[in-house]
Each structure stands twice: as C-alpha cells, then as structure tokens.
Amino acid sequence: MSADNAVNAVNAESAENAADVVRRGLRRIDLRRIDLRRLGRVALLGSNGHSRGRLPGAIEHLIKVHRTRHPEAGREEVETLRRAYVLAESSHRGQTRKSGEPYITHPLAVTLILAELGAETTTLTASLLHDTVEDTEVTLDQVRRGFGEEVSYLVDGVTKLEKVDYGAAAEPETFRKMLVATGNDVRVMSIKLADRLHNMRTLGVMRPEKQARIAKVTRDVLIPLAERLGVQALKSELEDLVFAILHPEEHAGTRAMIEAAGARPDPLSVVADDLRGVLRDAGIAAEVGIRPRHTVSVHRLMLKRGVTELGGCDFGRLLVLVDEDADCYAVLGELHTCFTPVIAEFKDFIAAPKFNLYQSLHTAVADRHGRIAEVLVRTKRMHRVAEAGVIALGDPYAAEAAQGPEASGAAGDGWADPDPTQPGWLARLLEWQRAAPDPDTFWTALRDDLAQDREITVFTSQDGDRSGTLRLPAGASCVDAAYAVHGEVGHACVGARVNGRLAPLGTRLRDGDALQLLMDDTAASAREPEGPDPEWLEHATTPAARIAITGWLALHPTAPGGARPAAAPAARPLPAVDSTPDTDPVAVTDLPGAAVRLARCCTPVPPDRVTGFVIRGGTVAVHRAGCPAGSRMAAAGRTAVPVRWRDGTSAGNFRATVLAEALSRPRLLADLTEVIAAQGIGIVSAAVEPPQEHRVRHTYTVELPAPEALAGLMRAMKSVPGVYDVYRAQPAVAAVRN
Fold first, then answer.
1. Which residues of 94-112 are buried (b: 16+ CB within 10 A; e: fewer)?
2. Surface-to-core class of residue 66, CB atoms within 10 Å of its CB (0-12 exposed, 13-18 middle, 19+ buried)
3. What SS3 class is residue 723?
4. What integer pLDDT is reported at residue 415 of this predicted model?
5. Beta carbons of 386 and 360 less than 8 angstroms apart
6. For residue 486, what are the contacts with CB-CB under 8 A and spacing of at least 6?
7. Distance from C-alpha of 82 to C-alpha of 665, rounded to nearest angstrom
8. Which among 568, 516, 458, 528 is positioned nearest to 725, based on CA atoms?
9. Residue 586: closest CA among 519, 490, 496, 655
10. What gap in Å lies between CA 414 and CA 412, rounded to an integer?
C-alpha cells in the first residue's frame, strides 16, 4: 500500500468512526494501534524525503480527528499543528526508537491519543513537541518564540531531568517537577499519561527486567494519576498493559475467558433490547449499548466473587445515554419499575460526583428470566468526561477565565463541585512535597498518597465562626485533618469534636462529618508547644501529616529512639489544699432556730435556684434545684424547706465545684492550679480522674471571694493549653458522669 493510500484508508476509517460517535455516542474511546502503525509507515516515507508533500500527509489524520472533536477549530489552529509537526519531524529526523521505527512516530502517536480524547490545540501542539527539548537541539526559547508561552510551559513540564545531573534521584525528581508543573496546568499530566501509554504499548522491545520496572512505576504512580484526572480510557488500557507484564499467566487466562465468551451469544443483548423497548414505550429518548469490561475489570470481578470463571452478563455492562440530567432519573425510574432492582448496587454519582469529575447513575436489575445486568445511566456530556476526564474539558483555564472568579464560589452551601484546574488531591500533594526534600522520602510518600483511591469532604469550623470544607483521602483521621488545615501548626492540636462530640485524634473521618479542631493557643504563652505524640504516626495516613510528625520528633528526641516520654498517669484524688470550714451562712431559712449549710454535692452559689431539706441535727442543707441528692430526699418523702440567699451576699466566701476537661499532658495539673491561684481563689479540694483515650477530667472545689468571681475563674481555666471545656458540676451531669 502506498503512503497516500495508507493515509486515505486511515482517514476513511476515522470518518466512519466519527460518524458512529455522533450517531450512537456509545463507543468506548478506542485508541487504535493499527492507525498508529499505518501512520508510522507514512511518517517513515515522509522523513526519508521521498516527497515533501507526504511530510504533512502524516498529520492529516490527526487534524481530521481534532476537527471531529472540535468543529470550531479554524485555519489558524490547523496551521499551528502543521508547523509543530514540521518542527518535530525535522528535529527528530535520523533518530529511531528501539523498535527501529523513526522517532517521529512516537510524538505523533501520543498526539493522536490525545486528539481521540478531545484535547484542544494547545495540548496537541505541545504533545507533538514534547520530546524536542529533551532529545534534540531545539531549545525552550525556540518553542516559546514559535508557539507561545503556554506550549513552552507544557513542553518544559514533561521534559525529564538528566541522570547525569541527578543520578538515581532523576526519576523521582522528574516526577516532582512534573507534578509541580501540573499544579499550574493540569494539561502537563495529560501529555505525560498519553506518552506513557504509547511507551507501554511498545515495551516489548526492552529487557524483561526493565519492562517490569517501568510497569511497576506505571502501576504505582501513573495509573492512580490517570484515575484522579478522570481519564478512564487511558487508565483502563494502562491497567491491562501492566497486568500483562507483571501477571502474564493470570492475564492470559482472563483473556482466554473473554475471547471464549465473545464467541457465544451475549445475553446482555437480549436485556438491552428489552430496555430499549421499555424506554421507547415511556417516551424517553435514549441510546442503549453494551460496554465490554476490559481485562483487569473482569479479573477484579472474579476476585471479588471468589470464582475462577464468569458467565452470563458478567463480561459487560449496559450503558444508557440521554440528553439531560433529569432524563437520567427518568430512565432509573423505568428500570426499577419494569425490572427487578438490585438495591445494594445502586449508586448516585450525579448528585454526588466523584472527586475526579465522574458522574453517572449505577444500578443493577434482573429481567424476567433472572439475568442480572449492571446498568450505567449518564448524559452524553457525562460520558465524554467519564472517558477523558479533564482532557474532555478542552482548555479548562479558558473556561475559568470566561466564567469569572465568581463562578467557582457559586455553591454557597459549602458543597462546591470539584475544580478541574485546582483538584484538592493535587493541592495536598504539592503542599507536602515541599517538606520532603529527600527524593527517597518523596518517592515513597508519593506512592502512599496515590494509593488512596477515594476522597471525602469534611465540614470544618474553628472558634465557632470560621467554617469551610476540607477534602481528605478516605481513611484520614483527625490528625490528618489538623495538618491539612494548619500545616506544621497542626502540632498544637490537642483534641477534636466530630459531629459535635469529643473524639480521639485517631478517629477516622467519614464523608460529611462536621469537624472542630481544638488547638493549643501558644500565642498567649511563652512556653514551646508540647508537640505531637509519637503514637500520632499510627493515626496519620497522609504524607503531609507523617512528614511533619516525623520531622518534629527527629528534632525533639527526648527518649531513646527519638520518642517522647509518655504522659505520666493521672494522680489519685488529692488532699484538700485548704480545709477552712464554712463561715457564716450565706443562705437563710424561715425555719426558726435552724442552722443552714450549703450542700457539698452541688455547691450552690448565688444566684442559683436552691431548695432546702432538714438533715440530721436539724440543720437545713441547701441544694441547687435539680440536684440528684435533693431529688432522692424528695422521693423519700422529705418535705422541702424554703431557703433564700441572704441579702448582701456580695461579701463573704462561696464554694463551687468546677470541672475541667482536657487532653492529658505533663504539667497540666500545675498549670491549672497556678491559674486558679492567680485569680485569688482558694482550692478546697481537687481530684484527677484516670485518663481515657488521652482525655482527663479535673474536679476542683474552690472558695470564691464573691459569686461573680466564678465566671472569671472558668474563663481563666479554659485558657490553659490543652483544656477544651470548663463547666460547673451540673446536677444532670453529676448524675450521668459520677
């Protein structure tokens, strides 16, 4: 076949497929290898100089695909692609790949992959040139002068660092550089993913050990990045290619099973016909097709079910495409009405999109013959994004600029849609990588971070008035949240409330939790904060938290191994510091000749509501209203005696019992007693309960010079670092806690 015939055949096939996309909209984006081989032959003829007319002929298919995805692309965009191809071909001329093919076939193949996914002109231009600065004499300045700042930035972002300069650290530092560049423009990673896909397709010419090394990096780093950017078309093929290299026997067995199933009638086609009839009768315009599972998906399904073979409808899923969001729910209603739904399989990713922009309804239904089929329902736009992720959005920065800054804050209820230009996972990654100067630490932490494949949203509040949303990887704890919100100041976290209740710092957060972090306010204290406990490392899952904790412990080694000594066990109840007996009574009763004494169980203080009961010796004991002891006496038939506060109670001594709840730490008791003494208040008795889950409760009975001194005392106690709550011994609290 001549070069022109090859190009014509490729173009005809592309036009037919493009028409199929427009007509049905169901085709999984197929990055066809046969096209690339044909284009490689065309590029080879052109690069040998057989005809200058054939040099741009190799890019005609790319331009046709691009115009199919972007009909608005004009003459200027097409000319830019032609110029980029000419520069790439001329600069790579004479270079060959390990397979023996001319090197230009690689950037051309990478760019065609991106064009199939719907990438816009700037991305395609940078893709054609992505290896020129790294492997040829072309400089970044030349790229900038010829194609602009954006293209130059993208090319620089994917250019590898030299091993000569970085040695063994070249690979991790290259990824660090690439991720930092992705933080400013997510299209950098799109080009890298397409680049790795083509390299994985042609990996067979390398030694087995090198194939395995590249496949492992692809598995640990590139595939999770493809998942986070929502580029499922790239992710699925990369998974299959890695599976074939690292697990060849399982891959071969799974492929054989898929091929055998393909030779049999597909029961899913019968269910699909029934579904089309149901939707047609309901007047819902929808397209129904079958989505075959890729190899790794089939293998995972077997592992999930614990079987060695699959059958029936297991090798694919039904895909229903509609025009509007509301139509998705109309289809769901018909599905669950006319078929038997498998309720446990229903998931609504339209109302709650995944963090990688994915939206779809997932369900499973059984037909009248008992065949169970999984069904995906989405709009055509959702389908494009599900396949190509951020690439399907074209230039997300142009859209952001057109909408204006107010667009990102439209969701006033705190549930903002994921921002494709500033994904939360990438912001977290960029934050912690700054604290990981060591390449090995960065490389290990990067793999750990990317291993978290889900994300949760937590509502945060600080000091009762500042609130917002925080995105964390699934499985994150309160410790992770402290460092995500406060950075290294997370060391000063002393506790947390989750959904309004006190919770240990090791508590795993769930999607939608309300979180309040309790911080040690060291700004008002001259002492250094206590710092994180070594056991926080057991609770920390995010690299940001682990790096910060490890760094602090390394700088503060106060025990062998760098660990800090554990907090001393809580003390037994302490003897009274001051046992001064009650002075003249501050409450009076109308009972003639009766002495009055304030009850020690509830320590009433003016202006508390009080009641009295006659006890042994004729003394009237004054209790706060609702005191459990008083309630028991009333239940036993004792008659309450009217009591009231004596006039002029602003002078004299008054006792009250105050409780302080705190996170256990050294010197807490000393700090609390010091602040009480500084208020000019005497301590009658004090007790410390044994700590539970690093929490401790102190109980103080104090003697006040005046009733109004109580509020000032409680404020002073609450200012002590580590103390998160101070309250009087309430009758109801006493009944529950004691």
1. eeeeeeebbbbbbbbbbbb
2. buried
3. strand
4. 33
5. yes
6. 492, 493, 517, 519
7. 68
8. 516
9. 655
10. 6
Asked whether the beta carbons of 552 and 544 are under 8 A apart, the reply is no
User: How do beta strands 466-473 and 610-614 pair?
Assistant: unpaired
Can you list the positions of beta strands (E) in 558-694? 587-589, 596-598, 610-614, 620-624, 640-641, 643-645, 654-663, 682-688
pLDDT recorded at residue 528: 53
Q: Is 35 a catalytic residue?
A: no
DSSP string, 441-505: HHHHHHHHHHT---EEEEEEEETTTEEEEEEEETT-BHHHHHHHHHGGGGGGEEEEEETTEEE-T
Total residues belonging to the chain: 738
DSSP assignment letter at 691: P
* Helical pair 140-147 and 75-92, crossing angle rounded to 10 deg: 160
Segment 369-375 long-range contacts (CB within 8 Å, at least 24 positions apart): 371/267, 371/270, 371/271, 371/312, 371/313, 372/312, 372/313, 372/342, 373/268, 373/271, 373/313, 373/317, 373/318, 374/313, 374/317, 374/318, 374/345, 375/275, 375/317, 375/318, 375/319, 375/320, 375/335
Buried (b) or exposed (e) across 543-559, using 16+ Cβ within 10 A? Answer: bbbbbbbbbbbeebeee
Say if residues 67 and 38 touch (Cβ distance below 8 Å).
Answer: no
Q: Hey, what are 263's tokens?
A: 């030779």
Q: What are phi and psi of 518, to 5 degrees?
A: -100, 115
Going by C-alpha positions, the residue among 287, 295, 444, 267 that lies closest to residue 368 is 267
Instruction: Encode pLDDT of 623-639 as tens digits.
Output: 877 777 777 778 777 77
Catalytic-labelled residue, pool 134, 348, 419, 448: 134
Q: Are strands 316-322 and 287-292 parallel, antiparallel or unpaired?
A: antiparallel
Rg, the chain, Cα only: 35
Residues 468/413, Cβ–Cβ less than 8 Å: no
**Cβ-proximal residues to 718 (8 Å cutoff; 6+ apart), any chain:** 660, 725, 726
- How many C-alpha atoms does 243 have within 13 Å on its Cβ side? 19
Task: Give the pLDDT confidence score for residue 150 in this predicted structure.
Answer: 92
- Residue 535 neighbours by CB under 8 Å, 6+ apart: none
HSE-up (13 A, CA, CB side) for residue 654: 25
Tell me the C-alpha distance between 356 and 226, whole Å: 9
Low-confidence spans in the chain with pLDDT less than 70: 1-58, 163-166, 396-424, 453, 462-467, 521-530, 557-586, 600-601, 603, 616-617, 647-653, 693, 730-738
Task: Determine phi and psi for 586, rounding to 5 degrees.
Answer: -100, 0
d(CA 112, CA 34): 12
Backbone angles phi, psi at 572, to 5 degrees: -70, 165
How high is the pLDDT of residue 652? 52
Residues 538-568: tens digit of each pLDDT? 888 888 888 888 888 887 765 444 444 443 3
Residue 730: CB atoms within 10 Å:
16
For the question of residue 135 being annotated catalytic, the response is yes
**Phi, psi (deg, nearest 5) at residue 222:** -70, -40
The strand pairing partners of 663, in sequence order, are: 695
Q: Is the CB of residue 482 less than 8 Å from the CB of residue 493?
A: yes
Catalytic residue from among 35, 89, 101, 135: 135
